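How a chain folds remains the central question behind the approach discussed here. This step matters because it turns folding into a mapping between discrete strings. The sequence in question and its structure tokens are set out directly beneath this paragraph.
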Amino acid sequence: MNLRFVLRISKTKPGKCEVIFDVDNRLKILEKLERQAAEPGFWNDQSKAKSVIEETNRQKQSTNPYNKICRLIDDAEVMLELAEAEVDDKHIEAAQKEIAGMLETTHTLYENLEVQALLSERFDACNAYISLHAGAGGTESCDWADMLFRMYRRYCDEHGLKTEVLDYQAGDEAGTKSATLYVQGDFAFGYLKAERGVHRLVRISPFDTNKRRHTSFAALDVVPEVADDIEVEIKETDIRIDTYRSSGSGGQHVNKTDSAIRITHMPSGIVVACQTDRSQHRNKDKAFKMLRAKLYEWQADQKKREMERFYSKKGEIAWGSQIRSYVMQPYTLVKDHRTGCETSNVANVLDGHLDDFIKAYLKHSAGKQNAGSATVQAKEGQ
């Protein structure tokens, strides 16, 4: 490897970051936020203090990797000059190995920042609610939904995202009939929105004694957590609240009271449920937060469909759209039908390694948005 050449290429990356992220402006914003946090009485208004800290952390998500890239490149350049002046072959080899590692880290940080630059929509930085539902097919589909449930929890764990199971309905014989996860972390919705849609599995069923090949479906919905200052109108006459006993493994963990909450929004047909807490009031609060998030997304979907009809475009938000296929027999393949991204390592994907698919979707979506904006402007100008 020509380290001098690689270093020269790497030295162009901070300049690109400065343009993409407007680093100078972000550093000024960060300085202003840190001054606010240092003011006396900062914690008197808890809500305002929380929003300042969240915005500070959001700005640091871009500035910290940028600063680390600059530092690694400077260190690599100094070390390379020292290595070129070294006469001991062992020392030279060790230095070259360390320099290569620094430049590889620089490349990884830059790639991550490139993807992060695509997360510019309003709610991309928000927490998210994931809802999984098994499709028709009984035990086979419930088992597939359970595999996806595990896959997304593994993905969240690997990326430092906290998860909380808000609702879980086990299948009649095995697997998962439906489940809802609350995901907390930086850009949780921005990344996970790539997974919204119907997932298809093709395999030889372990539940079929004749070992026939089966096709199963499971649907995933992802909505952002909506901040309290965003208005979402929910009329009391439009909702029905039901209470029931939480399901569980039995014994001391089963609630003895009807603490689980199910809320049905009748105009939209949206149903949310929460049974994670022993307190009915806390379950009700969490269920209402989830309902607000789903209603906001539902209203946004309605507006988008109207725009798509206006411009004679086929919508891709529809719940029934198949986004990805996972084939385990007679060959192995995972293919995203929106982007064309594919891999033959099905087991790796089911272990939660979804980065390639999510990055491909974000890049594909950004390209479509740019093309769509140009088309709309052209039509409006006619």
Notes: The chain has three domains: 3-117, 125-225+331-382, 227-309.
